[in-house]
Amino acid sequence: MTEVSLAFSSPDQIPLIFGTQDRFLRQVRDAVGVDVTLRGDEVRMHGTDEQIKRGLAVFAELRSILEKRGELLDSEVQGVLGISGNGHHTNGGPAEPIDLLEKARKVAPRTHGQGEYVRAIRENDLVFCVGPAGSGKTYLAVAMAVNALRQEQVKKIVLVRPAVEAGERLGFLPGDLLAKVNPFLRPLLDAMNEMLDYEQVKRYMERDVVEIVPLAFMRGRTLNNTFIILDEGQNTTVTQMKMFLTRMGTGSRIVVTGDTTQTDLPPHVTSGLLDAIDRLAGVEGIAHVRLTVSDIVRHRLVREIVEAYEDGPGHRKSRRKA
Predict the structure, then answer these.
(1) Strands 98-99 and 35-39
(2) How far from chain centre, in Å, is Cα 123?
(3) What is the Cα Rg of the chain in Å?
(4) For 257-279, what is each residue's pLDDT tens digit?
(5) CA–CA dist 203, 101 (Å, integer)
């Protein structure tokens, strides 16, 4: 048996991580199999080497969530532990944090759905992720791309987005290509800038290690040993999606993200994302992950907003009156 001490930035974090009447602590013990004891302000964990390894990963994720939000929700603890809402353990256990190898920074999936998403990216070369705004689909994809780059699993990251959101064509925007695509690729760059120092991101872009490119400029390319992210995939046509997916070269990985409730295509045009998910269902090496409202981790009002739009006009108002 092995024994280790757990470090906390403040003793005040301990009761929050343990939960009311130690309910979170009991869930960790049951899921991981470790024994956790509290002596004064020192938390000690006992178990086998494998249990200790899993326990440390779980507490690191819980601590990361707590430091960002100041509280822990039951759904977040269950997501970290890989426990479904009915109390059963999901296959594979908790997803490990994504190590960015940048001043010990790590990104931890904060819900069960996010954990499944990260696990799918680790285990497949092509992953489609559909989910509402704020569910972490873009952020986690960028984190996995940075991890793959810094682990030397790939040599390059390519960030792609269809430039259709504002109804403007690139030619009407001022500046060179980088300036033109910046507004469209901004969400991807913002995510990367949160994970890496600004100067590091700048060096990557100058050396073409990180490339940002509008979807239209992908035609004719073959990308080997590259982690490719296509964001806002619901705004691609069937032809565009086929063109994009066939850019995949040896040693490359692709993640396609999108929110099918926010499609900017004309009403009569089929979304390439939905078409690809349907066509490629069951193909080995391809995974499809669907995130839901319960996976939203932005401001609490984002979940309320998404639910309000899903309900339709007047629905939530009548529900409140009831």
Answers:
(1) unpaired
(2) 15
(3) 21
(4) 999 888 888 888 999 999 999 99
(5) 16
